[in-house]
Amino acid sequence: MNDTIVGFGRTIRKLRNEAGISQERFAAMCDLHRTYISDVELGKRNVSLENIQKMADALNTKISDVFLEVEKVESV
C-alpha cells in the first residue's frame, strides 16, 4: 500500500474521531457509502479529489489542512 494513501486514511479517521462523528454519520455527510469510508480509513482506496473535498467539507476544514495533517501523521 502507498504510504500517502494509508496516511490520508489515518488522518481522516483521526479528524473524524476528534469531531465525534461516527463512520456511518460521516459517510452520510459526505454522500458516500460507509464501506467506502472504511476502505479509505484503512488505506485501501485511492480517493478522488472530489471525494477528498466532500470529506474536508464534512470535517469543516480545507483540503490543504487535511494534507498538512497527513504530513504530520506520516512523519510519526
| Low-confidence segments | none
C-alpha geometry: globular
Written as H for each helix and E for each strand, in order along the chain, the element string is HHHHH
Number of helices: 5
**Quantity of strands, as a count:** 0
| Major sheet | none
Percentage of β-strand residues: under 5%
Distance between the termini: 17 Å
Mean pLDDT: 94
**Secondary-structure class:** mainly alpha
Report the C-alpha radius of gyration, rounded.
Answer: 11 Å
Helix content: over 70%
Explain what you see.
By secondary structure, the chain is mainly alpha-helical. The protein is built from five helices and no strands. The protein has helices at residues 3-18, 23-30, 34-41, 49-58, 63-74. α1 crosses α5 (63-74) and α2 (23-30) crosses α3.
How are the elements arranged and paired?
Layout: H1 3-18, H2 23-30, H3 34-41, H4 49-58, H5 63-74
Helix pairs in contact: 1-5, 2-3
